[in-house]
Amino acid sequence: SIIGHKACIPNTLISSGTMSKSIDPPVEQINAFGDHGPLRRIIAEDPEWSLALVPPLSILCLQNIVTNFEGMLFKELLPAHKEYVLGRLPPSLPLHVTANLISDPGYWRRCCVQRWNPCDVSQYGHSWKRMFFEKHLENLLELFIPDVTPPQSILELVPLCRDYVLRLDVSQLLPPIKEPGNPGRESDVGPSMDHFDFGLLLDQLSRLEELRLVYRVRGCGMNFEWNLFEFTLRDCEALARALKSCHTLKVIRMLCQSKVEDERCRILALHLLDHPSLLELDLSHNLIGDRGARAIAKLLSRSRLEGLDLYDNEVAGPGGRAIAHALSRSATLRSLNLRLNRLGDEGGRAVGQALLTNRTLRRLHLGANEMGEASAAVLAQVLVQNDTLTSINLSCNSLGADGGKILEDAMSHNNAVTEFDVRLTEVGEGSEAFIGQRVRSNQGRVREQIVFIDPTNMIDRVADQC
Amino acid sequence: MSGDVKKPVEVVVSSSEAEMHQERTDAHRLRGAARSTAKERGQRGEDSNEDMVIKDAGRPSEQRAEQSERMLVNLLSEGTQLITNIQVAADAKESQRRTELREGRRLQVEKLECEARSSMEKFEEITRGWSQAKAKVIPQELHQALGRQLQLCAQVLEDKSKLINDLQQELKARDERYVKELKRQAEEVDLMIERMEEQVKTLTRTNREELDHIEKAYEEERKVLLTGNRQEWEQHVKQRSTTELENMMERRRKVEEYEAMLEQLRLAEIDDYNVIREKLETDVQTTQLWKQQQKATAQLNQEKQEFNIHVLMHREKDSMIIQSKLKRKINRLQDVLNSLKANRVQAAKVGHGQCDDYTRTVQQYTLMQKKIKHFEAVDSERFAEVWKMKEEEVRELAERVLDIDRLLHEQQLGLVWERPTVPPELSPSPPRGPATADSAVGPSSRAAGVRSAGAYGEACSDGASSATGDSAGGAAGEGGRGRVSADTVKKLLQLLCDEAGFLIESKLLTLMSSLDKDHQSLIKLDSIFSSLGVESKDDVYRLAEFFSNYQQRPTHQADAEGFSTSSTFDLLHPDEVLAALKAFTAQYRRPRERSAPQHHSSTLTGAPEGPDQAAFWESLANVLPESKLKLWTALDSALEKYHAVLTERSQLFRDTQDLKRQNSELRMLLHQSLNAKVNTELVIPPDRLMKMAPK
Question: Which partner from A321, B79, B318, B592 sits 20 to 30 angstroms from B41, CA to CA?
Answer without folding.
Answer: B79
